[in-house]
Amino acid sequence: MKKIKVILLSLIIPVTVIMVWSIATARGVAPEAILPSIKSVLNAFRENLASGQLAKDLGISLSRVVKGYFAAVLLGVTLGTVMGMSNNVNHIFSLTLNAIRQIPMMAWIPLIILWFGIDELSKIVVIILGAFFPIMVNTFSGIRGTPPGYIEVARLYKLSRWNTFRKVYLPSAIPQIFVGLKLGLGISWMAVVAAELIASTEGIGFRISDARSMMKPDIVIMGMVVIGLVGIVMDKLLTFVSKKSTPWIGNKG
Questions:
Q1: By the 8 A CB rule, do 193 and 227 touch?
Q2: In what helix (H) or strand (E) does residue 194 lie, and over which residues does it extend?
Q3: How many CB atoms lie within 10 A of CB 12?
Q4: What is the pLDDT of residue 34?
Q5: Could you give the CA distance from residue 155 to residue 213 in angstroms, rounded to a whole number?
Q6: Three-class SS string for 113-171?
Q7: All domains of the chain in start order, with CATH
Q8: Phi first, then psi: what are they for 37, rounded to 5°?
């Protein structure tokens, strides 16, 4: 009963938006060139799905996300852990990383294109840059949030740095690390679309940009809806992994 209530509540806004959209297009409140009907968007979805174009675009974008995201996970978790466990390393990196973190992602894209061109590498670099900071910051916070008493016990037992990390820091930091992983994954998906919108010849972001230039709002909206749905699926998958990895936390969402 509780799950049904949650589902119904979560559908209130989407159903309202669809109803308003349907009424607005049926009564001609906005021209088709600005706000296409739901039927037009569904037709665009069916056509792109049947032709294989949608699957191709999604495959390209998701491939970029996978490459960039896992590189960001490796870098972010590693550096966040080392900074959290060592004050000296934290002092070396914290000022520089905090300064870089304040620069908006969109400000980096022209420079990244200048350095790496418009090929595959530039998109992956954008994803890494976008996902790295939430992963690193949350890993650092999780490591630093380890109760001092646990660390003292590890010292009394003379555990090595690796065993201290594995048996003390990591179990304590895992929930916070997963928060960073979820944030990083969402930003990865947004970053690849943004990069493809600006400089690309393939991918879901490029398809939206191309449809905009060709005055095809039905494909633009179709692409936006697909991006949102794929983002939800990725978030739910990572939430499932988080729950299975930290059963003692009782995660929600």
A1: yes
A2: helix 170-198
A3: 9
A4: 81
A5: 63
A6: HHHHCCCHHHHHHHHHHHHHHHHHHHHHHHHHCCCHHHHHHHHHCCCCHHHHHHHHHHH
A7: 41-245 (1.10.3720.10)
A8: -70, 160
Encoding tokens for residue 54? Answer: 């949608």
Count the residues in the chain: 253
Q: What is the pLDDT of residue 253?
A: 47
Give how far Cα 22 sits from Cα of 29, 35, 37, 43, 195, Å. 10, 10, 7, 15, 32
Give me the residue label for tokens 């049904």: 4
Nearest Cα to Cα of residue 68 among 139, 134, 126: 126
Token couple for 168? 């003390």
Are 182 and 239 in contact by the 8 Å Cβ rule? The answer is: yes
CB 80 within 8 A of CB 143: yes
What is the residue whose two structure tokens read 């002092």?
Answer: 91
The yes-or-no verdict on residue 123 having pLDDT over 90 is no
Alpha carbons 165 and 186: distance in angstroms, whole number: 27
Place of tokens 């978030």: 235
Rg (CA), the chain: 22
